[in-house]
What we know:
The model has no long low-confidence stretch (mean pLDDT about 90). The longest helix is centred in the last third of the chain and has 19 residues, at about 210-230. It contains 8 helices and 7 strands. α5 runs parallel beside α8 (about 210-230) and α7 runs parallel beside α8. It has a single domain (about 5-125, about 145-205), classed as Spore Coat Polysaccharide Biosynthesis Protein SpsA, Chain A (Alpha-Beta Complex), CATH 3.90.550.10. By secondary structure, it is α/β, with parallel strands linked by helices. Pfam families: Glycos_transf_2.
Amino acid sequence: MRYLTAIPVHNEEKHLESVLREVVRHAEHVLVVDDGSTDRTPELLRDFREVEVIRHPRNLGYGAGLRTAFRRTVDAGYDGLVTLDCDGQHEPHMIPEVAAGLAEADIVSGSRYLKVFDPAQSPPEERRRINVEVTRWLNECLGFALTDAFCGFKAYRRSAIEKFEITDLGYAMPLQVWVQAARHGMSVVELAVPLIYLDEERAFGGALDNSDYRLKHYRRVFQDALREAGLEVAGGCR
């Protein structure tokens, strides 16, 4: 299988070089989607000539970066796509293992909660609370059996990507992916990946930094996605 490995980035000068050095060791075709970075990210990317770069002229959002990666996968004729983040929380040496899962599923989704790799690692309480709640929606309303709704370490078959109609450009974009995956009857497997949280604060931006607001926003996006997909779901899911 010929697959693309894509990393959406925005102002990642702190982690970019170390992450990319590892990624290119484990992936043959690498794309970085620079979502309008204003730090040294564009300058640092010029040193990685083996890496394809698509740059958004301004910051559009995390979902926009993944949507660009989806389009590039299809346009360039790749068989699949692996995505991971550039914040040091994913293990690039696992890229081939994540991609290999596409032999049996349309989507391979990393899960930080299937297996404990390091007992000393734990997620921020509010982020874990939101993940648990959103994962419950996906399982109860869509019939999945997931343990991690928001892990960015994933793989997709091109045939799955071609069915997606992504309109949410922000951090709620995965909810559209899950709803549309259910709508099209896509097969999903989870793969245990290490839980890694670094000693730094990661901002979502604006009102989304408030966890209660963020959860309500995710709920609105989820409900809208259900309606747009025309799914027959229980009343409590609407």
